[in-house]
Amino acid sequence: MNATNLPVEPRQVVEVDWCDRWLVYHRLQELDIPCCCETQKPLQAEASSPTAMIQLWSVTKQYSASRQELIDWLKSCWNLNKR
Fold first, then answer.
1. DSSP letter string, 47-71
2. Which of 32, 23, 22 shows the shortest CA–CA distance to 55?
């Protein structure tokens, strides 16, 4: 299946800790991903393309994964480049 033909849900609720949601919100704004973050409501982002969805995943992963998970993921990326 071609990535451009994948169904994309236009509005996603982003699951991040309440203390990190404003950081995620500002980073998504820097990436020009439409989002809203209201008091006492979950962060919502609009992923209108596969690229935006990957960026959304990447930003949330930075705040939700443990340090060791991020290290392991980076090492696996380096190993892919060695092949």
1. --SHHHHHHHHHHHHHHHS-HHHHH
2. 32
| Percent helix, strand and coil across the chain, each to the nearest 5 | 55, 10, 35
Give the residue numbers spanning the domain of 23. 8-82
The domain tally of the chain equals 1
Q: Is 3 part of any domain?
A: no
* Amino acid at site 28: L
Residue-wise pLDDT for 15-71, tens only, equals 888 888 899 999 999 999 999 988 888 888 998 889 999 999 999 999 889 999 999
